[in-house]
Amino acid sequence: MKKILTFICLCFVFNIFCPAIAARKANEVITPQSQLQKRQYQTRQYTGNKTVIMKAMLNVLQDQGFIVNNANPLLGFISGAKEFSTNDKTIDKMKEFGTTKGMMGATVAVVEVTANVSEFGDDIKVRVNFKRKLLNVYGNAQKIEEITTPDYYQNFFAHVDKAIFIQKQKI
Fold first, then answer.
1. Reduced DSSP (H G I as helix, E B as strand, rest coil) percent helix, strand, coil of the chain, to 5
2. 53-58, long-range: CB within 8 Å, 24+ apart, which pairs?
3. What is the rounded CA–CA span in Å between residue 77 and residue 71?
4. Model-level pTM greater than 0.70?
5. 10 Å Cβ neighbour count for 64?
6. Spatial distance between the Cα atoms of 123 and 102, rounded to a whole number of angstroms
7. Rounded Cα–Cα distance for residues 44 and 157 (Å)
8. Predicted confidence (pLDDT) per residue in 131-170, tens digit
9. Are the CB atoms for 128 and 115 separated by under 8 Å?
10. Tens of pLDDT along 61-112?
């Protein structure tokens, strides 16, 4: 919190005394990720059978509390969602939703996932997207954002790696 306040104060001072520097610094801090950068952490390549990898992905999503809405093995497509109450004290909102701020008035938080599992030569390429939504009491979206934290995806793929190992060992 101190870092954010310091940054805001510095931006304010720079805007008064040196607007060009402040604008350049603000752009450097808030630079959006390119599509290529997103694909790098959203994608993982595996060797093996497409069916085994899809089954492992389904198991991981279900283990993490997602309800799988659609799974098409022919297209290699999986979609699902995980919902929880914003008032639930047993859920770590920082871990699950990335924030505790901005949840005022929201009663339900949803994390949606889509996955594309496709053959890529001899390998299988998996790309996953996660999105967060905050819904108010009427079910209307109050806030929607793509999850762009590489750690979130690394954690997910670490679970997929373990699930694939378990599938291959027939445990």
1. 45, 30, 25
2. 53/117, 53/124, 53/126, 53/160, 53/164, 54/78, 54/117, 55/167, 56/160, 56/163, 56/164, 56/166, 56/167, 57/115, 57/117, 57/126, 57/160, 57/163
3. 6
4. yes
5. 15
6. 41
7. 8
8. 999 888 888 888 899 999 999 999 999 999 999 999 888 8
9. yes
10. 999 999 999 999 999 999 999 998 877 777 776 666 665 555 566 788 899 9
Supply the DSSP symbol for 81: E
Please list, in sequence order, all residues whose beta carbon lies within 8 angstroms of the beta carbon of residue 103, skipping any fewer than 6 positions away: 86, 93, 97, 109, 134
Task: Measure the CA angle with vertex 69, ends 65 and 71; round to 5°.
Answer: 105
Amino acid at 76: G
Which structure tokens are listed for 7? 């940054």
**131/81 Cα distance (integer angstroms):** 9
The alpha-carbon radius of gyration of the chain (Å, integer) is 20
